[in-house]
Amino acid sequence: MEISAASQDYIRDLLETHTGQQITDERRWRITTALAGIFREYGISNVDQLVCLLTMPGQAQLAQRVVEALLNNETYFFRDFPYFETLKNTVLPELRERRADSRRLRVWSAGCSTGQEALSLAMIFSEQAEDWRDWTIEIIGSDVSRKAIETAKAATYSQFEIQRGISVAQMLKFFSESEQGWQADPKLRSMTQFHVANLLEAPGPALPYDIVLCRNVLLYFEAATRARAFERIHHSLAADGWLMLGAGETALGQTSLFEPAQCGNALYRHSCEAVTRRRGTPRSKAA
């Protein structure tokens, strides 16, 4: 189905204004597919007609629904499993030593979608319960999608969703089945908080995070917006913190604020330049 250039630009600008994400020419085909449900509901047949509706007064709710429909909320538990193994076996032991005095750890799952990434981390902490006894663990997830955050807060997943990434043993250990689906154990949910927020805005209190997971989000940004996102993460991450990107993403050539860690792909630390920019904030044993 052909879309007029003006309508395509309108939809592109709408998504970018609300989320910072872009619809590239390669992803143009997703527009009509993603909006098919809205077409049926409003009795229209194409994007041009939808744009006519969006330009009428009082259509803020429809605009939000269009944005939600265009977002890619693909996620599952322990996505890119080897990366979570590196977190468990390398990153967390180092931070446990560095934060021994404060006994507090804060993680930001940026672009958390429906919450599986944050709950995957909560499962790791639960499986290492003795190592983290008497610690305060905060896992904060944020996403621009209100619908995704509602699902994350409910922490309830369908049979299909619950089987993606975890074993039957983990499913039975950490989730309980109900008429609504499989709900995460209260202990997991007590470690997690979820907020609607743009990646370019830090969620929650303005305290440093020890780990930031920003995976499979930056690839949808143009270079300038991606640079702003790295700047936000830089200011939100503790001087000795860790950044994890997605398997298809890199900070190399994108920013001077981060450099690859030596322990595995997709993991980054603040660069020497970034630490200097923090004006004397040293890598210390406590955040």
UniProtKB/TrEMBL annotation:
Catalytic activity: L-glutamyl-[protein] + S-adenosyl-L-methionine = [protein]-L-glutamate 5-O-methyl ester + S-adenosyl-L-homocysteine
Domain of life: Bacteria
UniProt keyword Acyltransferase present: no
SUPFAM superfamilies according to UniProt: Chemotaxis receptor methyltransferase CheR, N-terminal domain, S-adenosyl-L-methionine-dependent methyltransferases
GO molecular-function terms, A-Z: protein-glutamate O-methyltransferase activity
EC number: 2.1.1.80
Source organism (scientific name): Parapontixanthobacter aurantiacus
Record keywords, A-Z: Methyltransferase, S-adenosyl-L-methionine, Transferase
Keyword Aminoacyl-tRNA synthetase: no
Pfam families to which the protein is assigned, alphabetical: CheR
Example GO biological process: methylation
Name under which the protein is recorded: protein-glutamate O-methyltransferase
Domain CheR-type methyltransferase: 1-273
